[in-house]
Every structure is written in C-alpha cells, then in structure tokens.
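Reviewer 2 asked us to include a model.

Predict the structure of this chain.
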Amino acid sequence: MTVQLVERIGKYEIQSLLGEGATSAVYLARDPFAQRAIALKRVFAEVLRDPQRAQAHRQQLLTEASLASRLSHPHIVEVYDAAVTEREAYLAMEYVPGGTLEQFCRPENLLPFDRLIEILFKCTRALEYAFLQGVTHRDIKPGNLLLTDPDGAEVKVSDFGAAIFHDSDRTLVMGLGSPAYMSPEQVRDASLNHQTDIYSLGVVMYQLLTGRLPFETDNHLSLAWKISNLEAPAPSSLRPEVPVALDEICARAMHKSLSARYQSWLEFSHDLAQAARNRRLVAQSQPHSETHRFQTLRGMPFFRQFDDVQIWEVLRLAEWREVAAGTLVMREGEPGHYVAILAHGQAAVCSQGQRLHRLSVGECFGEMSLFGAHPGTRSADVIADSDCTFVELRAEALGRASSGCQLRFYRAFLDTMAERLAAANVRLTHP
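Predicted model (structure tokens):
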C-alpha cells in the first residue's frame, strides 16, 4: 500500500514515514506540546472500514495503551497516548531510532557474540518485569525488539498489542502472534504462560546466531507441524564458530517440553550472564601458543597412545574453553554432541544432586553421548569446582579426523570407561 503523508494526525506533526505493514504505518512525528520526537502507529483507514478486521486492530491499540501505566521499564518502549474511534486509530509512543533486530538476522550482518548476549540478557530482564506485572507479550520477534543505537546494545521491547493479562478473566486481543516465532503450545492454541515468550526469544536468539529461522516453510500448516514435532539443528551446525554454551542456552529456551524449557526468566538470564562472564575470562586470559597446547595434550594420560602427528591433528579439530568456578558445564538429560577433556582445574560429575566422580586433569567426560543407548543425551551434570579449561571436540569434528586418530579416540574412550567401571566395582565391594 502506498502511504500518503499528511501534515498532522491529531495534535502530532508528521515528519516522515518510518515503515509500514499490511494493516498500519509508523511515522516519525513531533509532539508540539511535550517538545519531543515520537513514533506514531496509525491503522489504515481501509482496515477500520473492514468489519472483519477493524475491531481486532482497535483492540490491539487499546491493549497497548492500557499498558502505559502498568509497564515502566528502561527496556520497554513507553506509550504516551492513544486515540481509538470508528474513523481513527493511532498510538503515540517513544521514538527508538536504532532500528529493529531484523537488520542483524541476515547471515552477512550477524552480531558479535558478546553484543548478542548483552541484548538478549536485557530482553529477558524486560520480559521478566512484564511477567511480574501480569503480562505475557505473545509476539516476541526481531521486528518488535528495537535498538536505541544501531551500533549499541541498548534494546527496548515494543508492541504489546497481542499481550495476555494474567490478572484478567479474558484475553484482551484476538491476534495470535507471528507464526515463525510461535511456541509449540501456541500453534496448538493451548493455554499460555510466560514460557511461550521464552520459546519465542529462543527463536530470535537462533536467528541472530545463524541468520536463519529454525523452521522455514511457505505453508503455515507445515510450519506449525515442524514447530510441534521437529528438533531444530544446533546453531553451531549452521555456523561452526557458535560457542557450545550458546548452543545449549538456545536449545533449552526452545525446548518443546515445558518441563525442560527454562522455567523462569531468571534462569534464562542467569545462563546468559554466565556465558558472558566466561567469554570475558577467555578474553582476559593470555593466549596460549600452539606449542604450549601441544605439550599440554602430550602430557595427558588420555593422549598417551596418540603419536605426535595425531596430537597436532587434535589441535586443529578441538576448541579450548575456559569457564568460571560454579559453571554448569553439562546438564543431565540435555542434548550434547561433543566430548570434553579437562586441561586445567577441577570439576565434578553429578546426577540428581549426588556427586558421583571428581574429574582430574586429563580426564574426559561426555563420551557416553557418543556411545550410549540414546546418542546425544547427557547422562549426568558436570560442574566446575574451580576455574577450568576444557578441550572440546564436537562429534562432527571427530568425524572429520583421520581413521588412525579416530581409532585412538575410541580406544581412549573405552579405556576411560573400563577404568570407571573398575573404580565403581571397588566402591561397591568396599563401601
């Protein structure tokens, strides 16, 4: 639709068109009384004349306007004013000049990981605040997340027109959100709570990490089926440099099971903060030379059967990861397709709150995800007891190794499992 600019809408002086959709346009305008720039969203007159659509879009504006006194947060767009009549429907709100996160959802324009984590963390804090006020957004997507500066990390959540009010006995809007970002329970039209927003923010995270959606199709029915039934490929399978920690956070936020998904915004925030802290530790640590890392591996019992050529091959395939004390490195029951070897520090293997084994330098863990009855599923938690360094090897990287190197790995895994079984037998016979 071609939008004709007008000089004024209500008391607001129109300056330029910021964007338009199927049902409304957003203008940069000026409030002459408050002496400030605003964003003004106006529903098209043709929509207001359509009896099948008019009521729903009027209700959306009323829903957003009703939140003006309820939601006051530095990372939520402020609503100033609204007008909803038979002939006119517009909303005056805070102008956020940095554009939406849509600009960073393209493979050629992805954000640095540290900035991405900071933006998502601020979104979780804003959405937890909304949840504590009894509001679930229900339409989280990149287009509703605005940056105050295109080069910064200050973000504001906008467009609460599809929100659910949990202290009301009815839903105040008919819109159901954006299909690609809907949670499994949302596409089934089931009862919703804040976990539907957690899922949607997980989809946004996936798109910011990879430049693509987890499920893509032109058919809404096919999309709904995929969201309900298929597991999305790990972001790192599409972009290998994605850190394991961000793979795991994204997978948990997007888990189809409500019991396995993040139970609260606080849990989501905590894992993002931990990921940011661990990345800072890595950045602050002195870079190790390849020779130093070679000597580290050469001295580990795990690699005693590897020759020097195979050690250098491991160095080319592996990733080195540093984490702070207290970090949950692996979570029981969650998917995982990498094996790790402790290069520095101390860590513990736990299951259902019980400490099963203390890992020493040179020990591997996570190998059961490659051999177990349910490949890719973690059988225990691993928690860092101190600041630790791990050497990680993803399953796909191991698949690229030479046959000789692979044989050495599998022999080392089997030796490790045999040693642990023997130790377990000693504990059982000599309690």
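The domain at 101-270 is CATH 1.10.510.10 (Transferase(Phosphotransferase); domain 1). The chain is about 35% helix and 20% strand. We have added this to the supplementary material.
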